[in-house]
């Protein structure tokens, strides 16, 4: 396939582009800067300049593709207002991409987070949350999946809170950044809450499988670690950085504080069975050993 991808130069996107190119697909990637465009071209793809707000560019990219993978998101959690703006921008972009593909039976693979379910690991059958700081993303992805009834092979890959590579990325990467800034490896609550995780290279394989063969309207979990405790994560970070490990107030983590403090394990059993996906790269705690002191 000739695949149009947004977010193709980030931690996940870079892995997805390489996975697609390594399996016989060609890639046209949205690039916000000359640097991003050069990175895509160096990897073997083609670039089209623009960002998520450039709806005409998105239409052009989707129109000339055999399928679309959407990954781009302005990961700015500095305030609820800024986060809401990023969600609104993504909603407009996805609505535009879906509109181009109506009636074509072409795939549109979008991304969301694994849902939170009280008392047990979430599964692929659980609905996305439409409440809380990122509830708007859940509403948008749910609407995109409904395009399955309008001739779009829309599917969603649900990512855990930590997608990592070489010790960086996701919520665990944020904990590392905060630890460097504050001089302590902190965690909210009692640290027994669990976060699911996946290596970016394993997640990339799942995006390719969803593009190639996932049924319309389906959701899949890119989860390797069902749930590592936040305290265990903080302890590895603290040891690697030579910093004390201790609980800190949930409010210290700003808009993400309540999400950080939530127990949110997730299963990928149905994904492994349905698409034959099998993670092969290091799990989170092993990968965090790559953190540079």
UniProtKB/TrEMBL annotation:
One Pfam family, short name: Epimerase
Compositionally biased residues, Basic and acidic residues: 284-293
Positions of region (Disordered): 112-137, 264-293
Positions of the NAD-dependent epimerase/dehydratase domain: 3-215
InterPro entries for the chain: Epimerase_deHydtase (IPR001509), NAD(P)-bd_dom_sf (IPR036291), NAD(P)-dependent_oxidoreduct (IPR051783)
UniProt xrefs under CDD domains: SDR_a7
GO cellular component: cytoplasm
Molecular function GO labels: aldehyde dehydrogenase (NAD+) activity
The protein's name in its UniProt record: SDR family oxidoreductase
Species annotation: Leekyejoonella antrihumi
């Amino acid at each position: 396939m000739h695949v149009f991808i947004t977010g193709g130069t980030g931690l996940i996107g870079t892995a997805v582009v390489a996975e697609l190119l390594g399996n016989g697909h060609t890639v046209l990637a949205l690039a916000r800067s000359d640097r991003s465009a050069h990175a895509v071209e160096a990897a073997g793809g083609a670039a089209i300049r623009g960002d998520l707000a450039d709806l005409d560019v998105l239409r052009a990219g989707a129109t000339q593709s055999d399928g679309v993978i959407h990954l781009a998101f302005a990961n700015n959690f500095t305030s609820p207002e800024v986060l809401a703006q990023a969600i609104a921008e993504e909603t407009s972009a996805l609505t535009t991409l879906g509109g181009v593909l109506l009636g074509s039976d072409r795939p549109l693979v979008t991304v969301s987070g694994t849902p939170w379910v009280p008392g047990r690991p979430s599964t692929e059958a659980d609905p996305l949350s439409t409440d809380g700081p990122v509830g708007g993303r859940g509403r948008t992805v749910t609407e995109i999946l409904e395009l399955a009834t309008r001739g779009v092979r829309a599917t969603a890959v649900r990512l855990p809170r930590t997608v990592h590579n070489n010790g960086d990325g996701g919520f665990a990467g944020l904990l590392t950044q905060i630890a460097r800034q504050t001089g302590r490896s902190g965690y909210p609550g009692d640290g027994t809450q669990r976060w699911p995780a996946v290596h970016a290279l394993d997640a990339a394989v799942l995006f390719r499988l969803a593009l190639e063969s996932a049924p319309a309207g389906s959701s899949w979990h890119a989860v390797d670690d069902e749930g590592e405790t936040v305290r265990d994560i903080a302890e590895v970070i603290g040891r690697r950085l030579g910093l004390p490990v201790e609980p800190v107030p949930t409010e210290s983590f700003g808009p993400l504080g309540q999400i950080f403090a939530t127990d949110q394990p997730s299963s990928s059993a149905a994904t492994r069975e349905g698409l034959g996906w099998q993670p092969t790269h290091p799990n989170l705690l092993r990968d965090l050993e790559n953190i540079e002191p």
